[in-house]
Design goal:
The structure holds two protein chains of two kinds. By secondary structure, chain A is mostly helical. Chain A contains eight helices and no strands. Chain B is built from six helices and 37 strands. In chain B, β12 and β13 form a beta hairpin. Classes of the chains: A mainly alpha, B mainly beta. At the A-B interface, α2, α3, α5, α6 and α7 of A face α1, α3, α4, α5 and β5 of B.
Chain lengths: 205, 587
């Protein structure tokens, strides 16, 4: 993920902040062609990325209902930006950055909230969906162990591990969760050693 | 520490970060010499791979569509091509049209587009000029609902919009009060009802069609009470099963949910109530006061030996999901009704030594504790209060051989002398006392006695045109008690007071037909366009609630073949015109 000096709050600012580009300027400028206007851009981005962002949010928040809320919030922010003529440059990275921040801040706020509830949709898939037809008992056990370990980690460490699993490199993860290189590195390696310890312990059992 | 930790850390770091050449060299050299570290390195990398290989949770397509629609619904209003883009997007998600994937059938071939043919309200009289009394009402609204086609015949008036239908096959016959409605701003209506182990919540627009994003299912929530908030959102108070399925002990708790009109759950919700009194939260005392829900909590005494008193308190659920507990007060036997100012009133029957009659102690408390001036003692067995002008409390009481209507100020002092009611006021179906009176903003009062509705002015004089004596009698429902059970009373469906002092009554079925809903003018006459009678024998009106828009939302339950039933909401303008109909539960 390239990082430019203009980045503000995870958003690459296109053009002059004081005078944001209008849609017409966008379409005519050649800077970015938004397919079918900002809402079309959001819709096509959603189509391309909502599944992985949702999966990431479910793992990060450990609750499908919260994940749905945050998924909507993430794309709501994208809509706001796109309509204001500020479509993010690296939209996938942008989505994960917003989603990560939402998940971490939600986890901090929700120390109180243990009662997040599913809404429509949950009745079709109680809690976490383990859509894994071939899953053996062993694999299920390993999945459960992993979920437990992930759940026991602090929210930012969990998010960092999951970002890594979604293909982001260390520098991008640091950027996304707003920590220094060193802090992110030591947090990640601590988390990885802990995951390993738990998986080994499970194998012993 | 075994001296190898440094290398394991390098292994872990190498997954996410590029090692320096120096680090890389050191690690490679060490791993080549240390089989244990090689195995540990594999385990660490295996952990990373396992996380990446975790099965991906999948979002149901219909829900994915809802979320996209929600994300695109921010102001400013989206341009038309935005809508087209959404439509195209929805198609690509494979969910089909709105609500696909959800068991809502709207304009679908599989569902008849007509409402159930039996649900035909018949008007007893053609509309005529409204009674002079109405037109003389200063400041009253000039019109009586839409200038719709007269509702004269056996067939229903065509509704302005096609009735949308939500069809949910459910196995059991709904009980009384199964479908609960709450009129919302902008002619909207919140509807909640059970479906299997879940609750269906929907926001309907002024034509009875679900608003985008609705209906939704609130899983494992049952017996829910919707309360409309002034900002258009809703609070849903439910019993939530924490252990769905087999459960023998404590199986759930009370929870408050909150949803915006767009279907999104409000931040901070749902909330459960502090453990210890969760199952004692009185959802049915709940009332929106401002933008908070107030209800009363209850804690039973664990100490049977000392008989320590039980406690009640006000519970406030704020719009951000914070739950605030008020001060504790001693519990009352009957609790509670919450007034418009957030004061809760409960009653207890007491037997003073120095009095021949039993008395009722009426307690008033708010979040700060007991209100000064309270409790007060009233002769006889008193009802919960109704609320009149200037915060006046109006109660019915049955004392020895007569009934009384008692009026008190908010500080407990007497507001006006008691009104002596010549007949016994009917016992309430859900409280151990008489039905509370109806009272309008001018202080006029109505009391239900047996088969009649009596009317009084502020001075206790009988209102012209009253008593109102319904042709077929007010609807009474028997309890589920056998012939030998002498302690089982039938109950009267209480009449409802609507704006402009109209009284809506549920009345018994004429021979061979279903029950009727009637409207009584302030002069005691039956309003033109009414009553509306259900056609099918055995069909009954479950409830009627009148919104501030003067639309009456009546819930009808009709027997169907095979012993099943359907439930339909009918929205009536004050002139008896059907504004819309919605069958929410199909047999």
């Amino acid at each position: 993920m390239s990082v430019s000096a203009e980045q503000t709050d995870g958003m690459r600012v296109v053009g002059d902040m004081e005078r944001p580009h209008t849609l017409e300027q966008f379409d005519g400028s050649g800077i970015r062609q938004l397919p079918r206007g900002p809402d079309g851009f959001v819709a096509s981005t959603y189509e391309a990325h909502h599944a992985e962002v949702y999966a990431f949010l479910v793992r990060s928040t450990r609750d499908p209902s919260t994940a749905e809320d945050l998924l909507q919030e993430t794309f709501l922010r994208l809509t706001t930006e796109a309509r204001a003529g500020r479509a993010p440059d690296q939209v996938r990275a942008w989505l994960f950055r917003v989603a990560s921040n939402l998940a971490i801040s939600r986890a901090r706020r929700a120390a109180t909230a243990t009662t997040w509830m599913g809404r429509y949709g949950q009745s079709e898939h109680d809690g976490m969906i383990m859509d894994s037809p071939e899953s053996s008992a062993l694999r299920r056990e390993r999945t459960e162990t992993l979920e437990r370990v992930l759940g026991d980690l602090p929210a930012d460490a969990r998010v960092a591990l999951l970002l890594s699993a979604h293909g982001f490199k260390g520098e991008e993860i640091a950027e996304t969760i707003g920590r220094s290189h060193g802090a992110t590195r030591s947090m990640l390696l601590r988390a990885r050693l802990r995951v390993r310890d738990e998986l080994v312990a499970e194998d012993v059992r | 520490m075994n001296g190898h930790d440094e290398f394991l850390e390098l292994v872990a770091a190498s997954i996410d970060f590029e090692l320096t050449d120096e680090e890389f060299g050191r690690l490679s050299t060490h791993l080549a010499r240390c089989p244990d570290c090689r195995r540990a390195a594999d385990e660490i990398r295996g952990g990373a791979a396992a996380i990446a290989a975790l099965p991906a949770p999948v979002l149901a397509p219909a829900r994915a569509e809802q979320i996209l629609r929600g994300a695109l619904r921010t102001p400013p209003a989206k341009p038309r091509w935005g809508l087209l883009a959404v439509a195209a997007m929805l198609a690509t998600l494979g969910g089909g049209i709105l609500f696909a994937g959800f068991q809502l059938v709207n304009d679908d071939d599989s569902a008849p587009s007509e409402p159930p043919p039996s649900l035909v309200a018949e008007a007893s009289a053609p509309p005529s000029a409204e009674p002079a009394e109405e037109s003389a009402d200063p400041g009253s609204e000039p019109t009586d609902g839409p200038p719709a086609t007269p509702n004269t015949g056996e067939e229903p008036t065509p509704t302005p919009k096609d009735p949308a239908e939500i069809r949910f096959p459910i196995p059991s016959t709904p009980d009384l009060g199964f479908v609960r409605v709450a009129p919302a701003p902008d002619d909207r209506l919140w509807v909640a009802f059970n479906r299997d182990r879940d609750t269906v919540l929907a926001l309907l627009d002024g034509g009875g069609a679900p608003v985008d994003g609705w209906p939704a299912i609130v899983p494992n929530a049952g017996d829910c009470l919707p309360l409309a908030a002034p900002d258009g959102s809703v609070r849903l108070l439910c019993y939530y099963s924490t252990e769905p399925g087999e459960c023998v002990d404590v199986c759930g708790e009370d929870r408050a949910f909150a949803f915006a009109p767009n279907g999104k759950q409000l931040g901070g919700f749902p909330v459960s109530f502090p453990s210890g009194f969760a199952s004692g939260v009185d959802r049915y005392a709940a009332r929106m006061v401002g933008d908070s829900v107030l209800l009363t909590g209850y804690e039973g005494s664990d100490d049977e030996e000392t008989g320590a008193p039980n406690d009640r308190w006000i519970v406030e659920v704020r719009p951000n999901g914070n739950v605030v507990l008020g001060a504790r007060v001693p519990a009352t036997q009957q609790c509670c009704v919450i007034g418009p100012d957030g004061t809760a009133y409960g009653t207890s029957v007491v037997y003073p030594d120095d009095a021949d009659l039993q008395q009722t102690q009426v307690t008033a408390f708010d979040a700060h504790g007991m209100r000064s001036g309270w409790p007060i003692d009233l002769d006889g067995t008193a009802s919960p209060p109704s609320f009149g002008p200037n915060g006046q409390l109006v109660l019915s009481s049955w004392a020895d051989t007569e009934s009384l209507i008692v009026r008190r100020n908010p500080d407990g002092s007497e507001a006006a002398p008691p009104i002596h009611v010549p007949q016994s006021i009917t016992w309430s179906p859900d409280a151990d006392g008489p039905l509370p009176p109806l009272v309008d903003e001018h202080g006029r009062l109505w009391a239900t006695t047996g088969e009649e509705i009596l009317g009084f002015d502020q001075n206790g004089a009988s209102l012209d045109g009253f008593p109102y004596d319904p042709e077929t009698g007010l609807v009474t429902r028997g309890g589920d008690c056998g012939e030998q059970d002498t302690g089982c009373q039938s109950s009267v469906a209480p009449p409802q007071l609507a704006p402009q002092s109209l009284i809506y009554t549920l009345e018994n079925a004429p021979a061979g037909k279903g029950e009727r809903l009637n409207v009584v003018n302030r002069d005691g006459s039956i309003r033109s366009g009414w009553p509306n009678t259900l056609k099918r024998a055995g069909a009954r009106w479950e409830s009627v609630i009148i919104g501030s828009n003067r639309v009456a939302y009546a819930v009808a339950n009709e027997p169907e073949a095979n012993g099943e039933a359907s439930v339909t909401i009918v929205a009536y303008a004050p002139n008896g015109t059907v504004t819309w109909k919605l069958t929410v539960i199909e047999p």
